[in-house]
Structures are given as structure tokens and as C-alpha cells.
Amino acid sequence: MTHQRWHVGDATITAVLETTDRMRGDFVRRSVIPAATRERLAELPWLSPHYLDDGDLYLVTQAFVIAVGDTTVVVDTCLGNDKERRNPAFHLLDTPFLERLAAAGAAPERVDVVLCTHLHFDHVGWNTRLVDGRWVPTFPNARYLFARAEWEHWSAHGGVDYALNDSVRPVFDAGLAELVETDHAVTPEVALVPTHGHTPGHVSVRVRSRGAEALITGDMVHHPCQLAHPEWTGPADSDRDAAHATRAAALDDAAARGVLLIGTHFAAPAAGRVVPAEAGQGTWRLAERQDDAAP
Fold first, then answer.
1. Which has the closest alpha carbon to 160: 173, 169, 148, 147?
2. Among 182, 190, 186, which residue's Cα sits nearest to residue 209?
3. How far apart are CA 81 and CA 121, in angstroms?
4. 193, 187 Cβ separation under 8 angstroms
5. What CATH fold (topology level) applies to the domain 3-294?
6. Tens-digit pLDDT profile for the chain (295 aa)?
7. pTM, full prediction
8. Environment class of residue 7 by beta-carbon count within 10 Å: exposed (0-12), middle (13-18) or buried (19+)?
């Protein structure tokens, strides 16, 4: 499998795909972006061919490996194998994700830090793996960083207990979890950025080095169509007004400062510059940028 890879100063960011076929049109409209009908998507021709399949939208699940200096960071850990989920599309998966991660230079024992932008099931799944009937941390030598506000919200309200129980609590039980603030600096080059709205403690991840900057979105943006329409929110957003405001501000900032936007759920090419859309095609669009394609 070919990995997308981008260079940001001294940092290298590599995308590692887990699935491309679990989150498609009707599911995404029902759960994430109801306004993204085929008719509305057809008004945004720049989405083709990369971000639409047969005229409809889809999301991928993927992690990002940040390598900078002697530190290897994994951002978001996707769905995971062997997890019991209510939706058949996510139930008891069996993917070669760890092999792909190792091919990207992030074999589990080599990872120093795991960051979860939030605690939804599709961002924490590979935090753990099933070994002899027990959920154990996948990355035994890593610090797992969770935003304190995010953990406190979900652990108090129990809204995603099934994912907390098999993918988050075992990390705490193993003593590998660390609660941090939503603007925590991981290294001089890598820091969290508060982008609440999708969830109360949602963060994105900023990578900044030698004057270059990238932003890994998490679910602050789900699909590139939301660049054209930042107001398109949906049931998955815990605070729709905040999600809209956060997304609009982040996109305005990325456009003004030339930040490389890397979409956690974007199909390839998952990264690009935010530039003005053509007349009648919404606010922004994504101008492609793909530095490397590495095996």
C-alpha cells in the first residue's frame, strides 16, 4: 500500500489508511452531514474525482504518524479490530492496520505518543487490541494523551461507554494515560489546538517547524464539502453552533496563513491549502498538495 506523506519543516506526517468503505453516503448524511445531498454536492465540481464516489460522498478512517526528531506520534487510532459495535459496518473488523502502521515507520513498540482528538469510537479503536481475551494497550511504550475536558465529559455522561470500556479505560488501567489541557504542547513542533463543538473537549493537532505549519483536523471537519459550507453540521456534533463557529474560524485562519490542512476523514489527497471557492461554489475549496507517495 502507498502512504501519503507530507513534510512540514523538520517534521514528516504520514497517513495510514484503515478503511475506505465503512462510512458512505446515506450513513454520512444520517449521522454527520444531512445537508450533503447528491444535488448539493453536484454544485461543488472541485470535489470530483477524489472526494466523491459515483457522485456521493464518503469518509475514510486513517491515522497519522508524525515523526520529528526522536519522537514518533500517532494521531487518532481509527476503528480497531475485534470490537463489538452496534453498527454492522464497524462490528468485529479484521484489517491489516498494524502492518500498514509498521510499514509507515510506526511499529507499536516504536511509538512514543498517542493522541486522540476526541473519544468517539472511530478515533480510539486501535488504542487497544485483544490478547488472550483481554483488551491491552496496542502501544506499550507510549504515553496516551487525552484532553481532560473530553475525558471528563464522556466518563461522566457515559455516552460512548462501549468504546470507553474496550478502547480507553484499559489504557488508564495500564498506567499509560495522561490527561492534558486542550492547548497542550507535546513537543516544540507538535501541539493540541482546542476545536470544541463536535465534542466538548475536541482538539485538532498543529505541527509547526521552520516556518511551515499543518493542522490535522480530527472531526472539526469531516468532509471537504464542509470547506464550501462550514455551516453544514449534523447529529454527530454535540454543539452544532459551536461546531460551525469553530470550523469557520479555523478555515479562515488556515486560508489567511497558508496552513496545510490535513483532513482526518478525507480521502486521498487528504491534505491541501484552503483557497477561495469559485463563484457560486461556497466559501472555500481544497487546493491539492501531496508531497510524497511512499510504499
1. 169
2. 190
3. 12
4. no
5. Metallo-beta-lactamase; Chain A (3.60.15)
6. 789 999 999 999 999 999 999 999 999 999 999 999 999 999 999 999 999 999 999 999 999 999 999 999 999 999 999 999 999 999 999 999 999 999 999 999 999 999 999 999 999 999 999 999 999 999 999 999 999 999 999 988 655 567 999 999 999 999 999 999 999 999 999 999 999 999 999 999 999 999 999 999 999 999 999 999 999 999 999 999 999 999 999 999 999 999 999 999 999 999 999 999 999 999 999 997 767 766 6
7. 0.97
8. middle
**Cβ proximity of 139 and 74 under 8 Å:** yes
pLDDT at 294: 66
Distance CA 246, CA 13 (A): 24
Q: Where are the alpha helices (DSSP H) in the chain?
A: 25-31, 38-42, 97-103, 148-157, 161-167, 169-173, 225-228, 240-257
* Residues contacting 168, CB < 8 A, separation 6+: 119, 124, 127, 146, 151, 177
Q: How far is CA 57 from the centre of its chain?
A: 17
Provide the residue type at 114 as one letter: V
Integer Cα distance of 283 and 118 in angstroms: 27
Domain boundaries in the chain?
3-294
Distance of CA 274 to the CA centre of its chain: 17
DSSP notation for 86-145: SSGGGTT----HHHHHHHTT--GGG--EEE-SS-SGGGTGGGEEEETTEEEES-TTPEEE
Phi and psi angles of residue 71, each rounded to the nearest 5 degrees, phi first: -110, 135
C-alpha cell at position 163: 468504546
